[in-house]
Write a structure and sequence with these properties.
The protein has 146 residues and is an alpha+beta fold. It has a domain at 80-145: SH3 type barrels (Roll), CATH 2.30.30. It has one helix at 4-30; strands at residues 83-87, 94-97, 100-103, 107-108, 111-116, 120-125, 128-133, 141-145. It has a five-stranded antiparallel β-sheet, with no helix packed on it. The chain has a three-stranded antiparallel β-sheet with strand order 1-2-3, with no helix packed on it.
């Protein structure tokens, strides 16, 4: 009879041979590639929007600044901006200007809202900084140019 050690060695040998045989068979099967043909699906839902289409606005290249750009700078008409209310103590401060609710970073008439405080708001327009007073606080003043 064979010793116990010889039987273990033969068992391991046959196990390795069987595993090797399975890997070779799997490799031969994977060489035959199947081409999956999928039908072209077109989304048509009448008047509803297409959820597969992107609605992001793509950035267009900005034109190079010209030498006479300083002469043609538009000016901000502060008389058109009426501050109607300020919410300054919340997590997200808000201001109501011309019946529009704005937060920091929003644009109105081409001016960006920089900060919202109890005394008023600070706007930036073409490098110039403007203070708009809160309702009932006073007039509008230009702060400084950048």
């Amino acid at each position: 009879m064979m010793s116990r050690e010889c039987r273990y060695i033969l068992f391991i040998f046959f196990l390795i041979a069987a595993i090797d045989h399975k890997f070779i068979a799997a490799a031969e099967e994977s060489t035959t590639e199947e081409i999956i043909v999928r039908p072209a699906v077109e989304y048509a839902s009448g008047k509803l929007r297409d959820p597969f289409r992107t609605y992001l606005i793509k950035d267009e290249p900005k034109p190079l600044p010209q030498e006479n750009a300083d002469l043609a700078k538009p000016e901000l008409d502060l008389g058109k901006l009426e501050v109607q209310g300020i919410i300054w103590g919340a997590k997200i401060p808000q201001v109501i200007i011309n019946n529009k609710v704005l937060t920091i970073g929003d644009l109105i008439e081409g001016a960006e809202v920089l900060s919202i405080e109890k005394k008023g708001i600070v706007l930036s327009f073409n490098g110039a900084i403007f203070d708009l007073a809160a309702p009932g606080q006073g007039s509008v003043q230009a702060k400084k140019s950048m």
